[in-house]
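This section describes the prediction task in plain terms. A model, or a person checking by hand, is given the sequence of a single protein chain and must write out its three-dimensional structure as a string of tokens. No templates, partner chains or ligands are provided. The sample shown here is typical of the held-out split.
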Amino acid sequence: MTYVPKLASERYMDPHEAGFDSCVYCALAMLADAAMGKPVTTPQALEAIDDPKRMKVGTTMPAALAALAEASAVARKAITYLDGQNDTIDGLLANGEGLAVTGLYAALPVHYQRWDPAFAAKGSKSGHAMYVQRDGPDGPKAKSVWLLDPLAEPGYAGEWLPTEALHAFIATRVQHAAAPIAAPPEDDMTITRLKAEDWRPVAGHGVWRHAPDRSQLPAGHIADGTVTRTLAEISTVDGPDGDWRVTLVDGQLAYLLRSDWTPLTQGGDPAVQAQLTDFVARKTPSFTGRQVTVTSASDLHVNVS
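The expected answer:
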């Protein structure tokens, strides 16, 4: 079954602040996720791609792709730019690839303009970008493509768009599309040891990712000075790019690149490690040395004093 990415919605951002026109970036984010078969970008991370002034109204697909590529090796390796006619786009979709396409929102059938009728009313000034692919969650559907519209509200999972409507959308403008090429192979991941350790981020580098892969855009940021406790050491490849630590952020696994963090105690604090050892052994932890307050699993990465 073809991977179906989750929505990257402009609604996560403030499209009116600094003149943001982020539909192109969101469409490319979903394309990057589809090309890799897993989440590699988040709408929040797109805000930090570059100077917000570059995300201006009228941003073109090539310019947006160039900005995304600066921030993500995934984009450089997994996405290519093309000026696609209908036959080219249909051929790529038939091969099971995803596309980020541009056109006029006003050219879509009325049902698909429901997210922003006022924008659709702008006619020739309603330039928009969307993500499409052949397969939906249950496979393909004849004469249709699966659509994810960045203008949709968060929680929208996508819907079928008639192929004719897609053609009408892209025919109204000089159309650009970005298609995934061969995805880079994923690195093997080895947990080298369980180890509890406290860290502070190197200034400006407190980021975490959904997987131990430096080419991924960061999934989130941890403020400078925040103490973060990791639970294990992970190795993917030889060298500093393969040296990772794992923690929990909002209840989910988060991966930290070792070179982005400074340990509070070189080599680790035995008292901190003892707490993890006691926890695994189902013993009552001995709180000696640094004091830890855990109110929930999602707070584990911050409540260290």
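For orientation: Residues 13-20, 48-57, 181-185, 287-305 have pLDDT under 50 and may be disordered.
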